[in-house]
Amino acid sequence: MFNQVAPHQTRNRIVATAMRLFWEKGYQSTSVADLLSAAGVNSGSLYHFFAGKQEVLLAVLDAYHKGIRPMLLEPAWAGTSDPIERVFALLLHYRSALVSTDYTYGCPIGSLALELHEPDPPVRALLAANFHAWRDAVRKCLVATRPRLPPKVDPTALAELVLATMEGAVMLARTHRSVAPLDACIKLLRDYFARLGAAPASPPRGRSKPKPRRRNGN
Amino acid sequence: MFNQVAPHQTRNRIVATAMRLFWEKGYQSTSVADLLSAAGVNSGSLYHFFAGKQEVLLAVLDAYHKGIRPMLLEPAWAGTSDPIERVFALLLHYRSALVSTDYTYGCPIGSLALELHEPDPPVRALLAANFHAWRDAVRKCLVATRPRLPPKVDPTALAELVLATMEGAVMLARTHRSVAPLDACIKLLRDYFARLGAAPASPPRGRSKPKPRRRNGN
Questions:
Q1: Is there a contact between B131 and A176 if contact means CB atoms under 8 Å apart?
Q2: In chain A, which residues have their Cβ closer than 8 Å to the Cβ of B113?
Q3: Which CATH number fits domain B7-56: 1.10.10.60, 3.40.50.920, 3.90.550.10, 3.30.750.200?
Q4: Residues B78-87: tens digit of each pLDDT
């Protein structure tokens, strides 16, 4: 019983490996052979579950979409209950990820969205679904503080601005190998939120930046 | 005399063709064979000028960097003299490019920055130089209106926010094949500038959106 690998375990291992390789190397640069080797499965197993690399990509995008809460929001929001602070905690989560991976990890969805110049419709639909899920998570935070926002400011549009700023700032931080562009954007977004009356001008004490993680050892 | 093609013309043709192919298909998906075929040159000519595809990429990034004024800023700013309106004219230039190319054309630098997961140092340096040139063009607009900005707002940081927002919003617009995310971001950036006291809350009459270009004919 314990020596048998359940089929879904093999499928999950392929998807988890593809997630890692696509964000480390990119989709185009990851061959099916790379996937098989890194996942430790043979091609028969892969083609049993997937018609080809694009189907693996669809499964990866679906996994990101289904996993947004446990994989992204819950870790980012642990210990933060104020809805506006959750928006900034989400941005700082990307900051931590960039620093702790030496700028390898940005936003996997953003990277795939720009790497795939003309994605096939199902791929595009899942990229869009991921962006929507992220934006809606932020929108819900903004709606929860609706009375703090001026009536003319649309929470959906403001959530879109937060998402666009994160994506662009992560791109700049990765290219410059520095968190300075991301820090500048976070500071000004906070200033905008303060001018909207939605947040204090300064972050709550002790939460402005996550502690740097140790690079060596645990 | 007129039948001879000057060497720099061949080099320029290769670079111009690479610019087009890299933004249409991406860097990884463009082979040297694609380049030779599209540019109508033989491999001897290409290798006379470039050691390989990465050297062509460096020439492309250098061309974007040197061409930021004639290729981007001057067309975007034609007819707009107010420095703050120039910032928004630049954003609307991307909007026009997205619409007129059916969302094929985003920002070529942003696309390359995310497509190349671990760019070699000279590639990364030229990507960063392009981002800096763009940011500095916006920063100069902001510095020109310095008295309109609150003293605590750093023009460099604000220019970084404009760049990050453009890059992220172009990414979202391309994925959704809609200008709605970009329009939402432009509207809120304008709202932020208005709250900073740097711009009117509404764009000057007749300049809020560029006229749609005709898709057929000229």
A1: yes
A2: 114, 171, 174-175
A3: 1.10.10.60
A4: 999 999 999 9
